[in-house]
Amino acid sequence: MKCTDASEMLFKPNGVFSQSISLQIEGFSSYSMMEGVSSYSMMEGVTGGWSPQVTDRHPWLQLDLRDRIEVTAVATQGRYGSSDWVSGYLLLFSDTGRAWKQYRQEDGVGRFVGNVNADGVVHHKLSHSIRGRFLRFVPLDWNPSGWVGLRVEVYGCAYKSDVADFDGRSSLLYRFNQKSMSTVKDVISLRFKSRQAEGVLLHGEGQRGNYITLELHRARLALYLNLDDTRLRFSSGRVAVTLSSLLDDQHWHSVLIERFNKQVNLTVDTHTQHFRTKGEGDSLEVDYELSFGGIPLPGKPGTFLRKNFHGCMENLYYNGINIIDLAKRRKPQIYSGNVTFSCSEPQLVSTTFLSSSSSFLSLPATLSASGGFAVRFQFRTWNPDGLLLSTRLALEPQRLELQISNSRLRLTHHMSAQQKEEVSTGEGQQVNDGLWHSASLSSRGLQVTMTLDNEPSSTMELGDHMEAGDSLYFGGCPSLNVSGCENPTLAFQGCMRLFSINSQPMDLNLVHQGRLGDYKELQFDTCGIHDRCLPNFCEHGGQCSQSWSCFYCDCSGTGYTGATCHNSIYEASCEAYRLTGSSSGYFSIDPDGSGPLAPTLVYCNMTENKVWTVVTHNSTDPVRVQGSTLQKPYIMKFNYSASPEQLLALVSGSEQCQQEVMYSCRKSRLFNTRDGSPLSWWVDQGGERRTYWGGFLPGVQQCSCSLEENCMDMNYFCNCDADTDSWSNDTGVLSYKEHLPVSEIVIGDTNRTGSEALYRIGPLRCYGDKSVWNAASFYQESSYLHFPTLQAELSADISFYFKTSAPSGVFLENVGLKDFIRVELSSPFAVTFSFDVGNGPVVLAIKSHVPLNDRQWHYVRAERSVKEASLQVDQLPLRFLEAPSEGHLRLRLNSQLFVGGTAARQRGFLGCIRTLTVNGVTFSLEERAKMTPGVSAGCPGHCSGSSSLCHNSGRCIEKNSGYVCDCSQSAYGGPSCKEEVSVSFNRESSVTYTFQEPFSVMQNRSFQASSVYRGNSRAGENMAFIFMTTQSPAMLLTVSTFSQQYIAVILARNGSIQIWYHLHVDRRPDVFSPRPSSLADGRLHRIRIHREGKDVYLQDMNLKYSLSPDTEFISIKSLTLGKVTVDTMDEEVMQAGSKGFIGCLSSVQFNHMAPLKAALLNRASSLVSVRGHLVESNCGALADSTIFHSQSDHSETVGRGRGPLRNASQSNYAVIGGVVSAVVFISLCVVAVMTRFLYQHRQARRDASIKEKEHRTNLETAYRREAAYRAEPAYRTEFHLHDSHSSTLNDNREYYI
Predict the structure, then answer these.
(1) Four-CA torsion 933, 937, 941, 947, nearest 10 degrees
(2) Distance from first CA to last CA of the chain, Å, rounded?
(3) What pTM does this model have?
(4) Which of 471, 749, 1240, 1241 is the most buried (most CB within 10 A)?
(5) pLDDT tens across 1199-1208, in order?
(6) How far apart are CA 227 and CA 209, in angstroms?
(7) What value, to the nearest 5°, has the Cα angle with vertex 1104 and ends 1103 and 1107?
(8) Residue 176 and residue 285: Cα distance in Å, rounded?
(9) CA pair distance 85, 1111, nearest whole angstrom
(10) Cα(912)–Cα(809) distance, rounded to whole angstroms?
(11) Rounded CA gap, 1109 and 89, in Å?
C-alpha cells in the first residue's frame, strides 16, 4: 500500500494517531519549557509547545516514532499564547537516533520556511517521503522580538520491510528452476545502506556472454549490462553506467532497474539515467543463479571474485519475486550464507565543519605512556584546501600542522616564524574527492610519521623529541589566537569522524554537551556533505567540479562558455559573421545558439552582395554510372559535414537555399517515355523520393530545360528523355529549400548498350538569416504578442534589439503561480531584468548615461542560470549576480509568454522589437504580428532592414533626414564603415594605445571564486588585423598588463607567425606556431585570434589551441603595434620587438577598440603614443580584391557548363601552348621589375622627404574630416550622415520609432 493520503494515515487534526503508535519527545536543552500535551498534538485550540532555554547554543526538538515510519508531511506552529515561533528550520531523520541525515527538498533546498506568528500553521508536503524512526527539527531563525517556540505535527503511515544484513563475507544466491533464465524484460528493485564505498550488490552471467553486475565503486553505483556479446565478456573494456554518489553515508538509498530489450532505465533515489545496452541480442540469459551481496567463485562457497557488499538491503525484488522473504522462509531455491535478517547499526557518528573561516574542534591531548603522541581520524570533503589538525608543541614556538593543500595532504613542522619543514603525499593521492579518507600522525623518537589510508607513510626527521601541547585543534583555529594556532589558508569544510588520540577514542557527545573540549560552527551527529554536481548542471558536455558550497563548469573544448557552458562562442550564421566585419573563409556556426545542437564548420562566401553559407558532402566530384537497372539501381548516399539536425536548423533559418544537380546522359533516361514513371530520382532531407530536376515546384516531373523552353526535343520535359546516342545535359538548380539538401541519388537506366550517365551534386548553398530582421512594431500600450510558455526551468538566455521613443514599457513577461521572469525598459535610461524562482525577487538593472528611448536600435541580453544571472545592454558593462548556494533552482512558469506587454494589458511597450531569441530559438514576431491588433509586422525606418547600410560592425543610427553610420566600434572608417585604415611602418615606428584604467578584458566582474577553487575563467579577447611585410623577425602586436603578463604576435626568423601567451609570470609562456611557411612574402595576410578562457581560436586558419590551465588575462595596460623596447618579455619576443615592423598594418581591432584608427584620428590624445615615422597607406584597400593567404581557398572542382566532360587528351596542345606563353610573359615581367627597381633606388632619398610632407598633410586632413564627423554631441563618435529626403514617412505611428 502506498502512503498517499498522509493526513488520514498518521495524525488526525485532533491529534489522535490513526494507528496504535506512541511518540517520545526529546528537546535538547538544559531546560525545556514543555506545557500542555505532547508536541505532535492538535495545533488548533491546544495550549503549550516547546521552547528551549535562551542559553542553549544549538537547540533542537527530536521525535522518537517508536518504529520506522513513512513520513510524507510535517506542519509547524508557534508556542501557544506567546511571541515565540520558528521562521526557518532544518529537518533531519535517522533510524538510530545517532547518525542523522538532512532532508533536502526538490532542488536540494534544505531550509524549510516556518511561521510568521504564533498561531498560524505552516504545512509542508514532502516531495519524497522519509522512512525512519527519529525526526529532528533544528531551528535556524525565529521571531527577533521573541524566542524559539514550536509545535509540530507529523503525517505518514507505518512502514514494513524485509531486511537482510551482509557482513562483507556473506551473500544470497537465488537459483533458477531450470539451467538458465532468459528474459526480454526485467524489473529489479531494492533499497540499501552501505558501510563502505565498494561492494557488489547483484551479479549474474551466462555462457553466451550475457552478464549483469550492480556494484558500488567509489561510493557511486555502477551497472554493467551486456546482451549476447562474448567480446565484451573477456575484454577489459567493459563500460559501466554510473549514477549518484556519496552512497556510503549509512543511510537508505533506493535502486530501480527497468529493462525492455536493449532499453534500460536506471534510477537511484530521485535520479534516473536512460541508456541502451551493449550486445547483439534483446534477451538477458543468466545461467543457474543470481547472487546478491557478492560474486562467489563457482564451487567455492565463501570465496569471492570482488569485494563483497557490507551493509543492509531491504525489499529486494527480482521480477516480482521477494528474494529476502524467500530467504527468511528458508525456501530451497535460496542459499543464504552468513546473512541475518535484522540490520545492525554501527556507531559511526560524524561531525560537520560548516564554515571555511571559523569552524574548529578543540580536544585535549591525553598523555601517552610511551611518550610522543598518536592521532587518527577520518575526513571527507570537496575542498582542495583546508586545515585538518594543528597543535602547539612542548618546545615553543614550534607547532605542527596537517592540512589539505592543492588537494594533497601536507604535514608542516614550524620551527620558527621563518623556518619550517614539509612533507606531502604523492601527486596522484587527491583527497578532495568526497570519499572518506583516514589520516594518522604519530611521533616516535626523532620521527613524525604521516599516513593516508593504506598508502605508504611519509616520515619527517626531527631535531629533538616531540610532545604535543595541551590541545589539538581539528578543522580550524579559534578566532582569538591564544593557542598559537593559525589557519594557513582556510579552515576545513567537510566531515570528520572516529577521532582517536593516543589510542583513546573521543566521545563527541561529551563535546556537544560542553563536558569535553570546545567547538564552533559544527553540526554534530551528521555529515552534511552534498554533491552539487548531481545532477550535472553543466551544459553541452561541460565538466563539473565542486567545492563544499559551489560547483564550477569547465567548458574547455565544448565551443560554449558561461557559468554553465550555456552560451555558444560562435555566431549563429555567416550573415552574423559578416556583420562583425569578417571576410570569406571557414567558420564554425551555431544556428541554434545555446540550444542542444553542436556548432558546425561551414564556408562563408562573402564576395557577393548575398552572404552564402556552403556545406559540402562526401562526393563533390563527377561520378560516371553504367550498368544500373530499375531492379538493381545505382545508389549513392551523401554524408554532409553537418548532421541532419544541424542541416535542418541551417535551412530553416535561411532565407533561401539551393543545390546544383549536374546530370549528363547518353542513352539514359530520367523518366519512362511510355508511362512517365521515374527511372532515376533523388531523396530529400526528410527521406522522401523526389523526381523534379530543376527549380520547378515539387511534384512536377520536369527538368530545367522545360522551364526555360529550350529542350532539345520539345516532345519531352528533359533532354535525357530524348534517349539519343550523343551526350545530353539536364543540369539544374534545386531551390525548394524545404526539400534540401539532397541526401541520396538513385539512377536506374544505364544498362543498355552505349548507355551511361555522369552526375555531380554540388554543395548545399544558403543565404540570408531570417532571424536578423524579424521585427514587430507595437503602437498601442494594451497590445502584445503571446507565445507558448518559456521552457526555462534551469537556464534561459533572452536577447533582442529594440528602439523606441517611449519612456518605459515591458519587453516581455512570463509568470507562474509565484515565479516570474520579466525584461523591461524601466526608465528612459535603464533596462531592468527581474525574476523569482522561489528565493524572492531578483532585480538587475543597467543604467545608461545617454537616453535609450532615442529611436535607435539597442541590444539587450538577459541570462539566468542556476549559477548566476546577467544583463547586457549595448556595450555597457555587464551586470552579474550570483545565485545563492542554497536555494530553489527551477523557474516554474505556467502562463503564456507575453511580448511587448503584460497579461494585465498595462505598461505595454511602444516601439519596435526585432531578433527575439530565447535559448537559441528565434521567435517569429512578424507572423504573430500579422494576426494581432495593435501590432504590425516589420519596423519602419532606414536602419530597420537587412540592406546592411553600415559594414564591419558599424552601427546604423536613425536621423530625421536619413541615417548615419557610427564607426567607433569598427576598425574601418568612411561613410559606410568600409574604408580601410592602413599605415606603413618603418623599423622605428610604433603605435601604443593605453587604456584609461585597469580594463577587464570581457568587462566581467571579478570572479570571486579565487585561486582556492578551480573556477572557469571566462576572460577572453578578440584580435584582428591585416599585414604585409618582407621582414623577419618582426613584431606585429603586443598587449601588456599591469602584472607583467603579455600577448605577442610576431614573425619568427623564418617568417612564420608565432602567438605568445604569457599569462603566468612564474611559468613558461604558451607559444603557438600555426603555420611553418613564411608570411614575410610581401603579400596581404589576415590574422584573427579569438580567446575564450583556455581556448585560443585562429579563425581564418580554422585552428584551435589550449592554454595552460588556470589562465586569466585581466587588467590590461596597453596595446602596441610595431617596435617594443621593454625588457620584461622573453628573449625571442624581445628580439622581434627590437627589430620592429617594416610594412603595412591595416584594420587593427582589439575587442571593441580600433587602436590604429585612434592613432590617426586622435593623435593628440593622451591615450595614444606614436613613435617614429608613420605614413597613412592604402595597402588594406587591396584586401577587397586579394585572396588572403592565411585562409583556405574555396573553389568548386567542376564547372557549371551544361555539356558533358570532354576527353582529357583534347586539351594537351592547349596546355603546352599556355606554358610557353607563360614563360615568355614571366621573362618580360622580370626585366620590367628590375628596370623599375633600379629607377626607384635612384629616387629613394628624394621620395622620402616628399612622402613625409604628404603624410603630415594626410593626417591633418583625416583628423579634420573625422573631427567634423565627431561633432555630434549626443554620441561623440565617428558618424557619416546620409540624406534621404525622398523617403519621408507619413505613418502616424512614426512618433515612437
Answers:
(1) 180
(2) 65
(3) 0.75
(4) 749
(5) 333 333 333 3
(6) 7
(7) 145
(8) 12
(9) 50
(10) 12
(11) 41
What are the Cα distances from residue 1143, in Å, to 336, 1136, 1173, 1176? 86, 14, 12, 12
Contact between 200 and 307 under an 8 Å Cβ cutoff? The reply is: yes
Phi, psi (degrees; rounded to nearest 5) at 834:
-135, 150
Distance CA 1085, CA 1077 (A): 12
- Sorted by sequence, the CB contacts under 8 Å of residue 600 that are 6+ apart come out as 588, 589, 590, 591, 615, 641, 642, 643, 646, 650
Residue 837 CA, chain-centre distance (Å), reads 21
- Beta-bridge partners for 165: 312, 340
Q: What are phi and psi of 1276, to 5 degrees?
A: 55, 55
What contacts 219, CB < 8 A, 6 or more positions away?
Answer: 197, 245, 246, 247, 248, 434, 435
Q: What is the pLDDT of residues 13-37, one digit of tens each?
A: 333 333 333 455 555 443 333 333 3
With beta carbons less than 8 A apart as the criterion, state whether 410 and 350 touch.
no
Cα dihedral 189/195/198/201 (nearest 10) = -20
Residue 1238: strand, helix, or coil = helix
Evaluate whether 341 touches 312 at the Cβ level (below 8 Å). Answer: no
Would you state the cell numbers that stand for residue 1005, as one nine-digit string? Answer: 566582474
User: How far apart are the C-alpha atoms of 1090 and 1149, rounded to whole Å?
Assistant: 11
Q: For residue 849, how many other CB atoms are within 10 A of its CB?
A: 6
Distance separating alpha carbons of residues 399 and 417, to the nearest angstrom: 10
Q: Is residue 186 within 8 Å of 263, Cβ to Cβ?
A: no
Q: Which residues pair with 77 in a beta bridge?
A: 151
Closest CA to 492 of 387, 408, 379, 412: 387
Q: List the Cα angle 722/723/728 in 5-degree steps.
A: 80
Q: What angle do CA 27, 30, 32 make, to 5 degrees?
A: 45
Residue linked to cell 546530370: 663
C-alpha cell belonging to residue 259: 529493462
Per residue in 575-606, is it b (16+ CB within 10 Å) or e — as a string?
A: bbbbbebbbbbbbbbbbbbbbebbbbebbbbb
Q: What count of residues does the chain have?
A: 1297
Distance CA 293, CA 313 (A): 9
**Residue 390: phi, psi to the nearest 5?**
-140, 135
Closest by CA to 1102, choosing from 1193, 970, 1184, is 1193
**Chain segment 65-113, per-residue pLDDT in tens:** 989 999 999 999 999 989 999 999 999 999 988 889 999 988 788 899 9
For residues 860 and 531, the answer to whether their CB atoms sit within 8 Å is no
- So what's the pLDDT on residue 1009? 33
Spatial distance between the Cα atoms of 359 and 341, rounded to a whole number of angstroms: 41
Amino acid sitting at position 169: R
Scored b (16 or more CB within 10 A) or e, 154-164 reads: bbbbbbeebbb
**Rounded distance, CA 1232 to CA 1229, Å?**
5
Cell numbers given for 488: 594557513
| pLDDT tens-digit readout, 380-433 | 999 999 999 998 877 777 888 999 999 999 999 888 777 888 898 887 789 999
DSSP 67-120: EEEEEEEEEEE--TTSS--EEEEEEEEESSSSSBEE---GGG--PEE--SSSS-
Does an H or E element contain 758, and which? Answer: strand 756-761
β partners of residue 1060 = 1048, 1071
Place of cell 549474474: 204
User: Crossing angle, helix 1244-1269 and helix 1212-1242, to 10 degrees?
Assistant: 100
**CA separation for the pair 757, 625 (Å, rounded):** 5
Residue type, 655: E
Residue with cell 613613435: 1171
- Nearest alpha-carbon partner for 599 in 608, 586, 611, 609: 586
Coil, strand, or helix at residue 498? Answer: strand
* Residue 142: Cβ-neighbour burial (10 angstroms; 0-12, 13-18, 19+): buried
What is the number of other CB atoms lying within 10 angstroms of the CB of residue 1223?
10
